[in-house]
# Entry
Amino acid sequence: MKKRVGSYPRIRIEGGGRAVVSQAGSVLLVEIVRKAGLDTAISAALAPWRKARAVHDPGKVLLDVALAVASGGDCLADVGLLRAEPAVFGPVASDPTVSRLVGTLAASGEKALAAIRAARAEARARVWELAGAGAPDAGGTVTVDLDGVLVLAHSDKEDAAPTWKRTYGHHPLMGFVDHGPGGTGEPVAALLRPGNAGSNTAADHITAARLALAQLPKSYRRGRRTLIRTDSAGGTHTFVAWLAKPGRWLSYSVGMTVTEQIHSHVLKVPASAWTPAVETGGQVRDGAWVAELAGDVLHGWPKGMRLIVRKERPHPGAQLRITDADGMRLTCFATNTVGLPISELELRHRLRARAEDRIRAARATGLRNLPLHTTAENRIWLEIVQTALDLLAWMPMLALTGQARLWEPRRLRLRLFTTAGQLVTTSRRRILRLARHWPWTGVITDALERLALLPNPG
# Structure
């Protein structure tokens, strides 16, 4: 009888290994922190919260938690991942020290939040400058997408409430800079709200837009070079008027609800006024058309607002709404952009769907749940999550090329950050040798070489 052999080799396990680094690829994130100057910026910003004779710098403590979240952690205690590798991450504070710092910052309210955000904005301006043609503003404009996120709560946390999807938790409103088809995106706003917060709350959209603009380089905080995009939740008179206020003059592309008034105007549009919709690359979209509405449907809205409607044949089996017309699915958005064909404006608005990719990345990077009990503490957690997402966006922007620049957090962790390495000391130098057989070792070493060529801050 033939002896059965298992599918996997049998290996003897021992626990006495030395100079082995299990998260060696995370040196990419450490180098991004250094090149962006985020470590010095956040240390300076949080200096007022450093106690006399304190061993650990508050900025370093907060950055360590952000690095842990970027590596896949989802709670404060996951900073232990870094504590286990002092040769790569340096001294890391204990769990009680981390918890006390978060509690102290939470007690300081807006003052601490403003300090963290200012440090992030300072580092962002430097990263965009280093990125050059690869920066989000390379085309002369910056696009910010605002969108709500439902975060479930599995315990009774402060401000957790029933949501519009009949779940229970919180409803943050977030903002992301769109990097376009050649990259991912980075967070620039996170407004923590109760689960029952309304989707169309204009005051929340204005607050989120202010937070987002404050994260951009100064030249993009007003003017038509900055485009604010939202779904129909942003289609309110108050928010659109705020965007179009003289002196601010931001560009906008805001989804609108198809009301009975809009529906009646669509029925009056002549067939000759409908233009075929287009896809990326300029290809005509079969079965979809766009047209611009005018007349009294614009009364009460800011001057210069344009209303563009799209009609398309629904997918087989799709259920039509009462506001749809002649068997066509209707959608609508408003914009103040001129000089472009309405088909291009409609495509630009439709690309807002990339915000869903950013939300998916955020859920995989600490936003699956809010791990702390109080709202003040979870606001600090949202800043930590945004810092982690910043690093995961800046690293590909500065160091990766080709398809690797499009990798989302889960793939970055699986292929790059979890790479094993061996720490060797020779001639008073410490060298981290990555596994030769790992398929993506070359990606890591090439990325580190690109980062080494960038100038250091200061």
